[in-house]
């Protein structure tokens, strides 16, 4: 007897809803086993990871703060992936957006500039991220170079650029030689929404991005084009949709959103530019996009869930002394399960006896 | 500056070979997987796991060979996960490969955390009396460690396998047209599974090279994007083993060049020099793809496509 995949005649709605939930359940089970292997009580550990952050208001706010960049980047990436365009360099676009926006903050430092600084910074961040994303898009469309590799290579370049700037020209002269810019002026920081918390305007901007993407995908021709080019490239060609233009468009949108998320992160919770200010949001956002089934609302929920793993991971490191790398392991495992379960939407697994399989093959 | 002094030139060539070997090992393995039609973007994850597990086994056994085997095993286990997803469950290969890399980076950090700061003896270098003592070429040809010879043997072996054996022909057929290969009765998924495992073993060995021969210690994230460069090398090489070797040595050369420039205190920011290998990858990919645009793609025709046999 062996197991074979069999294409479903219709997409199963029940499976579509159940698949992310099954994936999360499987991930939690695997995590429990891993915790036990590390000599921790699985129940305590899981509750530190996933329940405690939900019980106090500080952590709830942190959840929104961490989910903000994840969701914003993932919404952009989902458009790419729907169109079968593989931008995996969002981390680089995130960093370049942060750098471009910070340029203005550094330039106007102490100059008592007006309230125009922050909007201009956000604009610069989005444009910077979009232009940085344009490089792999053009390389793909114009020369046929794999966008997967070029967009990823540019992450390393962006990382080094950031490193150079904060260690060199932009370093805070009064910063005791730490590689960081000076604290941004008040006019160059993202305002908080609720006094005394870290919840900032970026969360609202993210919600707007989610809403716009949802409308774009379900109510506009462009959104339809994106889905057709991704799901049925031949049909798209017959319909006269240009795959090349969509490569450029989706890269521009996702780059702009990643760049915007970058400058919001720097001008919001971080308040100054420093190396390693991102815990890999651009890569985690890829998981968010898939866990959210490439659907804007799904991504919002998925972003909150992944934010939970970041916060839970930090708390678990302090309270039960598990390494921070465990969070990445979980994120990887989660993506494995999500992808595996997604497969069950398209296929069903059937057991066939080898002999019958052979008979079928003849018939 | 004594650039052309033999001793200096010899040192450069030796360091280029050392920097190229992990790239060559990983890229040669990936080439076989891609020739069978499977695009495994998880090389970076398999390499870093190979590095962590390779270091761990060498640390406990005190043997470099055990370390290399540990790395190979880690790479194979990682690639088996990938194969189960992409071949068993028909998951999108790009997404599964990314997941493998994220998972590998995390898990290697977990495994390697206990070994940070520890040191081991690196792999011994070949020494043949007289031959190794030859001026200039002696050390380059007869004074390398086992990994270097293994990587060259591997490249030649893969070339022979792909173009000189019937099994290699079948593997290429599976990569070029899985529907026809299936119709001819070849077990497409089983052949791909073997190819992916082989790629994983090579990536694991390439990763293990880093803490076993390149530096005597393990640092989390020490592969620093080499897995991705290896992927680019396969494209650069137009999926041909000999060209993978040429590409690997070229990239090793760029890496070493920037290190030497940094050491010479050339007034260029070090970060700019460090970004050269990555920028070079982008430029080369564009140049190669552009040339190919005129001559038609050299990629295996079924590369990256999901195959579900209709029994």
Q: Could you characterize the architecture of this molecule?
A:
- The complex is a heterodimer of chains A (363) and B (311).
- By secondary structure, chain A is mostly helical.
- Chain A has 2 domains: 1-38 and 324-363, no CATH class; 66-303, no CATH class.
- Chain A has helices spanning 13-37, 42-50, 57-82, 90-107, 117-143, 147-167, 201-219, 221-231, 233-238, 243-270, 281-291, 296-319, 325-346, 354-362, and strands spanning 2-7, 347-352.
- Residues 356-363 of chain A have low confidence and may be disordered.
- Chain B is built from 13 helices and no strands.
- Chain B starts with 5 loop residues before the first helix and ends in a 16-residue tail after the last helix.
- The mean pLDDT of chain B is 89.
- Helix content of chain B is 71%, strand content 0%.
- Chain B has one domain: ABC transporter involved in vitamin B12 uptake, BtuC, CATH 1.10.3470.
- With 311 residues, chain B is mostly helical.
- At the A-B interface, strand 1, helix 5, helix 6, helix 11 and helix 13 of A face helix 4, helix 10, helix 12 and helix 13 of B.
């Amino acid at each position: 007897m062996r197991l074979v995949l069999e294409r479903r005649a219709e997409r199963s709605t029940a499976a579509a809803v159940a698949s992310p939930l099954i994936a999360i359940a499987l991930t939690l089970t695997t995590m429990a086993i891993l915790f036990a292997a590390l000599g921790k009580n699985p129940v305590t550990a899981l509750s530190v990871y996933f329940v405690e952050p939900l019980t106090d208001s500080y952590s709830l706010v942190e959840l929104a703060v961490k989910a903000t960049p994840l969701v914003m980047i993932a919404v952009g990436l989902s458009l790419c992936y729907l169109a079968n365009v593989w931008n995996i360099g969002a981390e680089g676009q995130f960093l370049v957006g942060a750098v471009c926006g910070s340029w203005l903050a550094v330039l106007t430092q102490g100059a008592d500039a007006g309230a125009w600084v922050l909007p201009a910074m956000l604009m610069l961040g989005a444009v910077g991220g979009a232009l940085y994303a344009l490089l792999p898009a053009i390389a793909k469309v114009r020369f046929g170079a794999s966008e997967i590799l070029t967009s990823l290579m540019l992450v390393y370049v962006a990382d080094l650029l950031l490193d150079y700037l904060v260690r060199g020209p932009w370093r805070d002269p009064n910063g005791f030689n730490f590689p960081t810019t000076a604290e941004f002026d008040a006019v160059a920081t993202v305002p908080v929404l609720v006094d005394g918390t870290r919840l900032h305007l970026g969360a609202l901007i993210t919600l707007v991005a989610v809403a716009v993407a949802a409308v774009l995908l379900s109510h506009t021709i462009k959104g339809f084009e994106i889905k057709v080019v991704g799901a049925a490239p031949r049909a798209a060609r017959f319909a006269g949709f240009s795959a090349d233009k969509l490569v450029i468009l989706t890269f521009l949108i996702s780059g702009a959103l990643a760049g915007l998320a970058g400058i919001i992160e720097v001008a919001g919770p971080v308040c100054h530019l420093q190396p390693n200010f991102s815990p890999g949001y651009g890569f985690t956002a890829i998981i968010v996009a898939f866990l959210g089934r490439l659907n804007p609302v799904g991504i919002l929920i998925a972003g909150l869930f992944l934010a939970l793993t970041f916060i839970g991971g930090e708390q678990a490191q302090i309270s039960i002394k598990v390494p921070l790398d465990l969070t990445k392991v979980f994120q990887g495992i989660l993506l494995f399960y999500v992808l595996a379960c997604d497969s069950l939407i398209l296929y069903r697994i059937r057991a066939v006896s080898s002999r019958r399989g052979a008979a079928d093959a003849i018939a | 500056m004594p650039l052309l002094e033999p001793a200096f030139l010899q040192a450069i060539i030796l360091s280029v070979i050392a920097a190229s070997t992990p790239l060559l090992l990983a890229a040669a393995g990936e080439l076989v997987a891609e020739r069978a039609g499977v695009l495994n973007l998880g090389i970076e994850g398999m390499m870093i796991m190979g590095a962590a597990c390779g270091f761990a086994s060498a640390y406990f056994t005190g043997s470099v060979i055990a370390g290399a085997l540990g790395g190979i095993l880690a790479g194979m286990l990682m690639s088996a996960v990938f194969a189960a997803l992409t071949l068993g469950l028909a998951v999108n290969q790009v997404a599964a490969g990314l997941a493998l890399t994220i998972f590998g980076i995390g898990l290697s950090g977990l495994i390697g955390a206990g070994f940070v700061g520890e040191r081991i003896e690196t792999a011994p270098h070949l020494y043949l009396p007289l031959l190794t003592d030859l001026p200039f070429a002696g050390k380059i040809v007869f004074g390398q460690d086992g990994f270097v010879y293994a990587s060259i043997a591997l490249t030649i072996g893969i070339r022979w396998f792909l173009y000189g054996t019937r099994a290699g022909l079948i593997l290429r057929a599976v990569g070029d047209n899985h529907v026809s290969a299936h119709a001819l009765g070849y077990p497409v998924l089983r052949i791909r599974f073997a190819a992916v495992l082989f790629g994983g073993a090579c990536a694991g060995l390439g990763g293990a090279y880093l803490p076993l021969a390149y530096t005597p210690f393990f640092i989390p994230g020490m592969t620093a994007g080499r897995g991705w460069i290896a992927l680019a090398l396969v494209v650069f090489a137009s999926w041909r083993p000999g060209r993978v070797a040429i590409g690997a040595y070229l990239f090793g050369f760029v890496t070493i060049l920037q290190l030497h420039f940094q050491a010479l205190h050339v007034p260029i920011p070090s970060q700019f020099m460090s970004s050269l290998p990555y920028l070079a990858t982008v430029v080369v990919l564009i140049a190669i793809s552009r040339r190919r645009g005129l001559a038609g793609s050299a990629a295996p025709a079924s590369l990256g496509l999901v195959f579900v046999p209709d029994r």
